[in-house]
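Sorry to interrupt, but I need a hand with the structure work. Could you write out one complete protein record for me, on any chain you like? Just paste the record in under my message, thanks.

. . .
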Amino acid sequence: MARKVAYRKRRQNRFGMFLVSLVVVMLLIVVAFNSIGLMAKKESYQQKEAALEEQIAAEQERAQEIEEFEKYTHTKKYIEEVARDKLGLVYEGEILFEDEN
């Protein structure tokens, strides 16, 4: 009878080890699938980050151009150009020739 009890304990122990091993393998499989999904998300986020950095660089360049244009609009040269082109003003004694087209 002692042999039967010892045999049962060994059998239960093997079955328990099998179940634990099965659970560990299943967890590894789940972790592997999740890591693949996370890698895909990471790659897409890196692409989005690169696109946003390009947009930031473009906007900074545009802001620099706007700032330079603002400085230019405060110059005498710009005021003269606007007065000539839009208002048709000329200096005293200056002759303006226009096309007839």
